[in-house]
Specification:
It is an enzyme of class 4 (lyase). Its EC number is 4.2.1.51. One of its GO terms (biological process) is L-phenylalanine biosynthetic process. The protein has three domains: 5-86 and 174-182, Periplasmic binding protein-like II (D-Maltodextrin-Binding Protein, domain 2, 3-Layer(aba) Sandwich), CATH 3.40.190; 90-166, D-Maltodextrin-Binding Protein, domain 2 (3-Layer(aba) Sandwich), CATH 3.40.190.10; 195-282, Alpha-Beta Plaits, CATH 3.30.70. The chain is 30% helix and 35% strand. It is built from ten helices and 15 strands. Strands 1, 2, 3, 4, 5 and 11 form a six-stranded mixed beta sheet that branches. Strands 8-7-9-6-10 form a five-stranded mixed beta sheet. A four-stranded antiparallel beta sheet has the order 13-14-12-15, with helices on one face. Strand 13 and strand 14 form a beta hairpin. The protein starts with 7 loop residues before the first strand and ends with a helix.
């Protein structure tokens, strides 16, 4: 069956990955296009094989996703949305397998680290694999009832496995934040409701440069929800920052803050302006309530 690029969304990983699950959640009518790497996922969007890309950027347990912040500025794409995907790990095995049959469990290193209680309870040996969905496929292909995988329910469906136990993650809040990428920017406008502005910047290599560059966000009352730093071009003095603020660049407070940032920086580039996902406010409400 031929699919149209206009109804295709690219993701990094194999069928059944959590990124695949997120594609289904946000664009259930789209065809999900697996990509071997993040660079391939970006290229599939940039070169017109897919309309959007679903890219993980942070996890509430594991932290930021490696390499993404390095790749975003050079992707040639724009952030047009965000999605928060709850991560519910499943213990997957061949049909007919009992938990007492299992000796080892394979999965991505982060997934294994998020299910330590299960290993202690059942006395299982964790084995690091490239990814969650790939582990599920390996279990299906090897046909060994002594081996299980930690992956999504979608992976079980994809590779003909069964879930012996659901929601085995240690932390109930385990959630991955994804950004949705596209070739063209989609500006929701300053009056459209809560929005997020993502951007990168480089400060001059002088004392207090970062303090001065960010001062405008404080004085103008702009909430900065993310600030990540990383080295570029192999130089320990050349630091680039990835930041996110609540608000639209046309909002007076955000505009003034960005103007001040630009004055103290060598480069400021907006990567996307997009609607804020409701999970942001739900998470904040829980934090304020002490949950």
């Amino acid at each position: 069956m031929t699919t149209s690029p206009e109804t295709t969304i690219a993701f990094q990983g194999m069928p059944g990955a959590y990124s695949h699950l997120s594609c289904r959640a946000v664009f259930p009518e789209f065809t999900a296009l697996p990509s071997a790497s993040f660079e391939d996922a970006f290229a599939n969007v940039r070169e017109g094989r897919a309309k959007y890309g679903m890219i993980p950027i942070d996890n509430s347990v594991a932290g930021r996703v490696a390499d993404i912040h390095h790749l975003l500025p050079g992707s040639g794409l724009h952030i047009i949305g965000e999605h928060y995907q709850p991560v519910h790990h499943h213990l997957l095995a061949l049909p007919g397998t009992k938990i007492e049959d299992i000796r080892e469990v394979r999965s991505h290193v982060h997934a294994l680290g998020q299910c330590r209680k299960l290993f202690r309870e059942l006395g299982l040996t964790p084995v690091v694999a490239a990814d969650t969905a790939g582990s599920a496929r390996e279990v299906a292909e090897r046909g060994d009832r002594h081996i299980a995988a930690i992956a999504s329910e979608l992976a079980a469906e994809t590779y003909g496995l069964v879930s012996l136990r659901a929601n085995i993650e240690d932390a109930a809040h385990n959630t991955t934040r994804f950004i949705i990428m596209a070739r063209e920017a989609v500006d929701p406008g300053p009056k459209s409701g809560p929005v997020v502005t993502s951007f990168v910047f480089k400060v001059r290599n002088v004392p207090a440069a970062l303090y001065k560059a960010l001062g405008g966000f404080s004085t103008n009352g702009v909430n900065m929800t993310k600030l990540e730093s990383y080295q570029i071009d192999g130089q320990f003095v050349a630091t680039q920052f990835f930041a996110e603020v609540e608000g639209h660049p046309d909002d007076r407070a955000v505009r003034l803050a960005l103007e001040e940032l630009d004055f103290f920086s060598r480069e400021v580039r907006i990567l996307g302006v997009y609607p804020a996902h409701p999970y942001r406010f739900l998470s904040r409400a829980k934090l304020d309530a002490g949950e």
